[in-house]
Amino acid sequence: MDTAEKLIRESQVLFTTEDFMIIALVAAVVLSMPFFVFGLKKRSYVAVISLIVLMAYAAGELYFTFFNRHSMVADSWNVLTPMADIDAAFRVDLGVIGLIKEIIHGNAQAALASIHVESARKAREVLLNVLLYLPLGYLLPFVSKKFRRPSAVLLIGFLCSLATELGQYYTKLGYFQVDDLICNTMGALIGGLIGIALCALWRIE
Predict the structure, then answer these.
(1) Are 33 and 53 in contact (CB under 8 A)?
(2) Cα distance between residue 69 and residue 63, in whole Å
(3) What DSSP designation does 63 have?
(4) What ranges in 46-174 are assigned the alpha helix state H?
(5) pLDDT given at position 28
(6) Are 147 and 140 in contact (CB under 8 A)?
(7) Cβ within 8 Å of residue 40, ≥6 positions away
């Protein structure tokens, strides 16, 4: 069995059909924007189209976080300790501060080499929670100039994630995890930084 086939088989075991649907949703949102930006005759339509795509994404996000679930949650499953899942998923030899310093100095290879996966299951959860909110941050700068500041995207991402976590807790369709809040907000910020950069590159008014 070659390496590619092995990776595919491992991914099929680790990721569920729902996980692949989430990844497909994220990819569809991210890849659709260049098509709309360069396919539209008037750039003024970009904000409207972006808002429509954002609403479609929101519907998909609500499906995965609420409508596709059954009430089965125990209060004891709530995890309020920050970084609990992230620490269980990854080990960073350089520490968080050292990792950030390496990234700032442009030493991406050294930064990546210092990260080790401790739990594939926890790493999957962290990755999906980051990915799920990446389209939110990515689309906001296209919707309005007001969201072309990282702080604005960060705030919206945090508030949306907080609303989702509280909604899952009170409806018993999920459980409240601080790490989900952190990962969702991080995903929105990453998406926002990409969206802000592309708006500047493509000269979106």
Answers:
(1) yes
(2) 8
(3) I
(4) 46-62, 84-89, 95-104, 108-113, 120-143, 150-171
(5) 92
(6) yes
(7) 46, 49
The residues of the chain scoring below 70 in pLDDT are: 1-14, 41-43, 72-77
Name 169's Cβ contacts closer than 8 Å, sequence gap at least 6: 78, 175, 176
Asked whether the beta carbons of 56 and 161 are under 8 A apart, the reply is: no
Q: What is the three-class DSSP state of 94?
A: coil
Question: What pLDDT does residue 106 have?
Answer: 80
Q: Give residue for tokens 């990755």.
A: 127
CB 188 within 8 A of CB 132: no
**Chain center to CA of 111:** 20
> How far is residue 130's CA from residue 151's CA, in Å, rounded to a whole number?
17
Rounded distance between C-alpha atoms, residue 140 and residue 154, angstroms: 11
The length of the chain is 205
User: What does DSSP assign to residue 91?
Assistant: E
